[in-house]
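Most newcomers find our protein records easier to grasp once they have seen one. Sequence and backbone structure share a record, each on its own labelled line. To make this concrete, we reproduce a full record directly below:
***
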Amino acid sequence: MQQPWQPLLDWWFGAAGCGSGVTAAEVAASRTALWFGKQDRQDDQAREQFGVWVEQALAGQLQAWQGEPEGWLANILLLDQLPRMIFRDTPRAFAGDALARPLALQGLTLAWDQQLRPIQRVFVYLVLEHAEDLALQNQAVKLFQRLHEQAASAERELFAGYLDYAERHQRVIARFGRFPHRNQILGRTSSADESTFLLEPGSRF
């Protein structure tokens, strides 16, 4: 019997990417444009297929999914990743962050990430990478370091890239205590230092 969250995992990782026999590099090659592409077509697809689930997750109505690792992962995606697509460039893009963080930390305490495929773990650890909190950023870097160290040699480059992004996010929070590129969306006033930083290539991830 198919679990209720399986259509979301199939869409996010590809149906093959949720099974065995497919490498992390193969999944990433086929799905990176979806994960990080910022395309209107993909945002619309996320909204049409999973917008109702995102609203339910934000309202705390999918807690029954949190009883096992893959349901936990699906709930994290609905709180952390999909709002960034469905509500892109609005304050609601970050509406699920405060709910995703304790959910991710709870599962990490139970070592549920270790029951997921390495490429799936990336999206658990990204919850911490998205946090405007240095302690959580430090934890994210450690988790991505471990993921890189444990990766097969053929996939080290892929996971090195995820680690690099974690370290870049960590440095921004260590410097500013927040992500300056969110200031305009959230109605926050940028400091002079932040404004200068935002002129630098790559400052907006």
